Amino acid sequence: MARISRPLALGAMAFAFTVQGVSAKELGVPAVPEGVQVLSKGTPLGVRDPGVNLIANYSNRSIPVLADENGMPLYTFDKDENDKSNCADQCAQAWPPLLAPSKAKAFGEWNVVARADGGRQWAFKHKPLYRFAKDTVLGNATGEGDSWKTVAFAPNPGIQLPSGIVAEQLEDAGGVVLVNHVGRTLYAYSGKPGEDSTICSKTPCASSWTPVSAPSLATNIGDFTKVRRGDGSDQWAYQGLPLYSFDLDEMAGQINGYAQDKRWEPALVVRFPTPAELGVTLQWTNAAGLNFATSKGRSLYRQYLYYYSVAGHDERKGYPYKPFAGRALGGKACEDDCREMWEPLKASANAKPIGLWSVVARPDGSKQWAYREHALYTYKDDKKPGDLLGVNTWMISINDPELGFQSLFQKLNINAEIMSGIVFTSVYP
Fold first, then answer.
1. What is the C-alpha separation between 302 and 339, in angstroms, rounded?
2. In this predicted structure, what is the pLDDT of residue 258?
3. H-type helices in 359-429, by residue range?
4. How confident is residue 24, by pLDDT bands cut at 50, 70 and 90?
5. 5 pLDDT more than 50
6. Is the pLDDT of residue 12 over 70?
7. What is the average pLDDT across 108-129?
8. Is the domain of 360 the same as that of 228?
9. Phi, psi dihedrals of residue 135, rounded to the nearest 5°
10. How confident is residue 314, by pLDDT bands cut at 50, 70 and 90?
11. Cα–Cα distance measured from residue 259 to residue 330, given in angstroms and rounded to the nearest whole number
12. Distances in Å between the alpha carbon of 345 and those of 94, 240, 287, 375, 377?
């Protein structure tokens, strides 16, 4: 029997700012092509296995690797050459190539190689990619070893950068973003050409947005060019868009400028793509920062397997992501009375995963979107954009032999000894 409780902590938000389609020019190349997802390599958390240290498995940080649309890990072959596959015939039967669509084109770290049999195969960093025919369990890489290696997800733009500018992965920004020498996020201005020079010579803009100055003797490099400002100074621009830092970003990793003005957005060089059919947005809430929402502003939630810890769980953004836990719960942990308040974020029958967004099956055969392997829901009591009334709502699952109730953990084959409940929490980048 599952029992739904009211939220134990923060509920209604005072305001929300939705960020969607803010730029006239989409910055950054996608981290992966459609149909390639990022999953954690290993055995799902909590599945009863006497040979697995479940507590260690729960606590250890997962290893994100590239996987195909069915969740099977992708591999490279040591005997391949750059942009050439040396795996054909019987080898290709055991190691099927990751085929690319007929119209697929190279981008970022991805390119397409021609196979001897006439097929087209995706390659990552010029190394052709394969699946292992004997892999059958989500994320379980049984083919690793000898000449075959899984591919870690670690986006690297590999671009030329001016002195004092660095590219770093920043989840809140949605990818790999440009930062200055002290780690402050850089923003690209995408408003009317030349207007920024006028805007940012007056308050409040002049007191908030600081142009990224370029040395007078600096020369253009790669996607970076120098632009002349109205006061005669030089400023760096990325892909033709002038760069700024935001004065209220007080420490590295912050993107407080994201919700201030739609003409400025984080300067992405690699972006984590979202599924086209979803149309998800980012909402800025005063209690939980940036959170994902539907195109209509409905906040998104995920389930978290709670277990006892003296360190606590309510971190800066709420509960951390535990991909193995999300995989163990899948779309099966919210049925019956849970569905009275929680609506699964449905995926179409033809939905394809991409990057950190995957698709999970529900008990009724329908599909549901998941983020970082956590199935996604909306909460029926949320009425306006920015509402997070479902945060910290608990599901208590118990056994009652006399009444015939079976614990949800038992149904999901999860070790209940180290778990004490399921809690709904926010979905942040």
1. 14
2. 80
3. 408-411
4. very low
5. no
6. no
7. 96
8. no
9. -75, 125
10. low
11. 32
12. 36, 37, 23, 8, 5
- What are 324-363's pLDDT values in tens digits? 888 888 999 998 889 999 999 999 999 999 999 999 999 9
Distance between CA 52 and CA 133 in Å, rounded? 25
298 CB neighbour count, 10 Å cutoff:
21
Residues 243 and 297 in one domain: no
Domain that holds residue 410: 2-20+279-426
- The whole-number average pLDDT for the span 78-89 is 96
Domain boundary among 243, 271, 299: 271
DSSP conformational letter for 37: E
The one-letter amino acid at 359: V
Query: The whole model's pTM is what?
Result: 0.86
Q: Is the peptide bond preceding residue 204 cis, with omega within 30 degrees of 0? A: yes
Residue 267 shares a structural domain with residue 326? no
Q: Do 267 and 297 lie in a common domain?
A: no
**Among 271, 300, 320, which residue terminates a domain?**
271
Please give the residue that has the higher pLDDT: either 258 or 113.
Answer: 113
Q: Which residues pair with 110 in a beta bridge?
A: 107, 124
Average pLDDT, the chain: 83
Classify the phi-psi angles of 137: left when phi > 0, otherwise alpha if psi is within -120 to 50, otherwise beta.
beta
**Do residues 12 and 282 touch, judged by C-beta distance below 8 A?**
no
Residue showing tokens 């300067």:
267
Q: Which helix (H) or strand (E) holds 323?
A: helix 323-329
Q: Are 285 and 233 in a shared domain? A: no
In the chain, how many domains are there? Answer: 2
Is there a domain that residue 59 lies in? no
